[in-house]
Amino acid sequence: MNKENVALQPVRGTRDLIGEDQRRHAHVIDTARRVAATYGFDEWSTPVFEDTRVFARGLGDTSDVVMKEMYSFTDRGGESLTLRPEATAGVCRALVSNGLTQSLPQKVFYAGPMFRYERPQKGRYRQFHQIDVEVLGSAEPLADAEVIGCGWAILQALGVAKDVVLELNTLGDRESRDAYRAALVAYFSAHKDKLSEDSLARLERNPLRIVDSKDEGDKRVVADAPTIHAHLTEAAAAFYAKLQDHLARIGVPFRENPRIVRGLDYYSHTAFEFVTSQLGAQGTVLGGGRYEGLVEEMGGPHTPCIGWAAGVERLSMLLAEPPPAPRGVAVVPVGEAAEAAALDVLQALRGAGIRAEMAYRGNLKRRMERANRIGARAAVILGEAELARGVAQLKDLGTGEQAEVPIAELVAKLG
Ligand code: ATP
Ligand code: MG
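Above: inputs. Below: predicted complex with adenosine-5'-triphosphate.
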C-alpha cells in the first residue's frame, strides 16, 4: 500500500489485459502477424516515443491527432518527445534512418501500443493497440489491392469479416484534389451558417476535413456536398478503376463511399475503412489509404506508400468466441518422496512442449482440487509404490477415466 493506504488505479483510458482479455488481444495480433507473413510482410518495431517532429510533420499540423491528442513532453535533456499516436510516421522515419529508401518497396507489418489523449469510452482508450500494414515505395494500384486484401484476409481469419464492410473511395491525384477542394470551398461557403466552429476553421485550410466531420449539423450539410468523382483526372479515374478490378479479382467485396476522406494531410488516391455496426459509435475497425510526401517529411526522397491500421481492442470485441484457455497437465506427487520424481516428469513433459504444472504444496486432495481449478486436462498421479514400479496413474480430468501408464510413455500419451 502507498502512504495514503488507497489502492492505486490504472490511469484513465488505460486497461490491464488479463485472462480472457489478454487471450483475445494476443489472438488478434498473432492471427494478423501470421496472415501478413503469408502476404510477404516483414515485421518492424520502432521506439514507442519519438522526436515530436516525427508526428507533427508526419500527420500534418492541422490533424486532430496533432492538435488535440498527442502525449508530448519535454524530457530531462530538454527534448520535445511524443508517445507515438500511430505507427506510420515512425515507420517512414525508420525507412530513412536505416538507409532503406534505395531498397523499395518495403512491406512492413507492425503491432504495438499507441497513445492518444482522447475522451475514453467503449472502444476508445488513451493507450490502445494497433496492427498495421504498409507498402513503402510503390505507386501501383496492385499494392493497394494487396494491402486491402491482406486486411480482408485478417478479418476473415479472425471470423469477423461477416460483420464488417469495406468502404472505398478515392481522393484522386493532386490535380483532382485541387479542383475538388475549390468545389468544396464554394459549396461550404454557401452554407457557412450551418457549419460547426471546427468546420468553419477548416473551410479555407482543409475543406476535405469537413467531409469527415462527426458533428450532426455538419453531416447534414455534407450530405449534399459535391463528391470528388466529377473532378477526377483521367489518370486518377483509371487508377481507381484498376484497383476496383483487382479487388474484384481477389474477391474482396466493397461498397463505394464518397464520404471517406481520412484525417491526415498526405492522402492521395485510395482511402478506405472497414466498418461495422456492432460497436456503436466506434464503428471503424480498420482504416487506411495511399499517401505521399511522408517519407520526404522525414528527410527521404518522394516515396508513394499505401497502408492501414486497425484497432486491436475493437477487433477483440468483435471476436465471437474468446480463444479457449490453455489446458495443461497437472503433475501430482503423493508424499514428499515422490516430489523429486515428479520434478523429472515435469521436466520431461515441458521439454516435449507440453504445458505442465505442479502445485508447490498440498496433499493429494488439495492438489487434485487445484488441478481442476486451473482447468487441467489430465493429472499424472505419482504414488511411491507406483514409482517403485516405474509407472504413474494417468487421470483424464474430462472423463474421469484413470489408467496406469509407464512413466517412460507419459510424453507420448500426453503429446
Ligand atoms: P476514430 O474515427 O475512431 O477516432 P481514427 O480515424 O482516429 O479513428 P486511425 O488513426 O485511422 O483512427 O486509427 C486506425 C484504427 O485504430 C481505428 O480504425 C480504430 O480501430 C483504432 N483506434 C484509433 N483510435 C483509437 C483509440 N483511441 N482507442 C482504440 N482504438 C483506436
Ligand atoms: Mg480518432
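The domain at 329-414 is CATH 3.40.50.800 (Rossmann fold).
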